[in-house]
Amino acid sequence: MPTIRQSIDHWRAAFAAAGVDSPRLTIELLLAHVLGLERGALLGMGEHELTPVQSAQLEALCARRARREPLAYLLGYWEFWGRRFAVRPGVLIPRPETEGVIALAKKLLPPDTRGWAVDIGCGSGVLAVTLALEFKQLRVLALDLHSMPLQVTAENARAHGVASRLWMARMDGLAAMPPVPLFDLIVSNPPYVTPEDYPGLQPEVLDHEPQAALVGGKAGLELPSRLLAQIARIAKPGALVLMEHGMEQGAALREAAQRAGLKDIRTEEDYAGLDRILVARA
Ligand SMILES: C[S@@+](CC[C@H](N)C(=O)[O-])C[C@H]1O[C@@H](n2cnc3c(N)ncnc32)[C@H](O)[C@@H]1O
Description:
Blueprint: H1 4-17, H2 23-35, H3 52-66, H4 71-75, E1 77-80, E2 83-86, H5 99-108, E3 115-120, H6 126-134, E4 138-144, H7 147-159, E5 166-170, E6 183-188, H8 203-208, H9 222-231, E7 235-244, H10 250-259, E8 263-269, E9 275-281
Parallel strand pairs: 3-4, 3-6, 4-5, 6-7
Antiparallel strand pairs: 1-2, 7-9, 8-9
Helix pairs in contact: 1-2, 2-3, 5-6, 9-10
């Protein structure tokens, strides 16, 4: 059976040839997953021989990765805000840019904020669950149009011990919400990729992630603009609104927020200095 070192050498080269990002990190993470270890534990284990079962499992996972299946789906989890979240096909893999929504909520709201938050388009539930974890008094409603995201959000809420403060509903935007000003915090990372940009995305995204989680209608702005128009009906006066968007959509969304009657409207940049999150008050 191959040793750890031999597996790393073989698959690092195979991943590089297949155009997989970070080939060495990828094989190390898959090896650690198969062996049930943290990646750091592989250090010094180069001559350790895999069992036949481990070797077969590794071979199967690596072959799928070489065909550009996303690493997160193969591992069954991904990290967000320093915590591990279950992910699987049918839900978007959380992106690092989205952590900006949490960073802003923490910057703009005191930790003992009470009341209700809503996460529109919850996907794996990273925003809803992280808000419940960071704001211990907050109750959170997670909404999605599709059922798989709601299942995975429920799983992640249970795994992180916040299920008693997190509710879920299947809904198109906020259409079925009664017009009651209930929410103190409204967050969303809606689909916002343009139909023109979509075919140019990486094979991992195009062939494996749900298109409905990514494409936001004409100019990528249809759903984000519709959501902004609906927010006024459910937000308490002064409620904080945080919405992630594409790097060229800042101006259009500020206009949409103004039309929706929101106040104190501005755009925050992400770590790369690109327009990324609309910030406003109801
Ligand atoms: C970009 S993903 C964001 C997922 C998660 N919040 C995150 O940041 O990783 C957008 C989510 O919105 C959901 N969605 C798409 N259209 C929707 C709609 N009309 N109403 C509610 N949710 C919708 C998708 O199913 C998907 O889970």
